[in-house]
Amino acid sequence: MTVEAFTDEERLVLEFFEHWEERDIEAIVGYFAADGSYIDMPLPPRRGTDAIRAYLTEIFGAFTVKIETLAMASRGETVFTERIDYLIRDGHPTVDLPVTGVMEIRDGKIAAWRDYLDLKTVEAGLAVSYDASADETDTVSVRNV
Fold first, then answer.
1. Is the pTM of this model over 0.85?
2. Which of 67, 117, 120, 131 has the fewest Cβ atoms surrounding its Cβ within 10 A?
3. How far apart are CA 1 and CA 64, in angstroms?
4. Does residue 144 lie in a domain region?
């Protein structure tokens, strides 16, 4: 399914998603404001590009992500997406993860990104475990189970 972008903010979000399958951490981090935040609910938020980079390094060390945007809407600088994130790990079936995301764009950068997903679907499908009790200063590690 191809979603059309109608605003600069929507175009930025779709361009941003293209970098995920490539595992291009520096390109992904480059879309964030220096003080930007990223949270996969129910995990703690990552604030600032260093924390986001560390989190992405953990993710991409465990699996690849291909993002399919099903629907998108925006109001002002806030962009909402409905997606299927395909989580791909060697030796495991692909996990089709339904996700709803909200991004706040400020001065052409992602100031805040909140994704709402079922963490148990990720853990069961990829045979990994997250420590959701960590606070935002901790590095959330992805562990094999």
1. yes
2. 120
3. 20
4. no
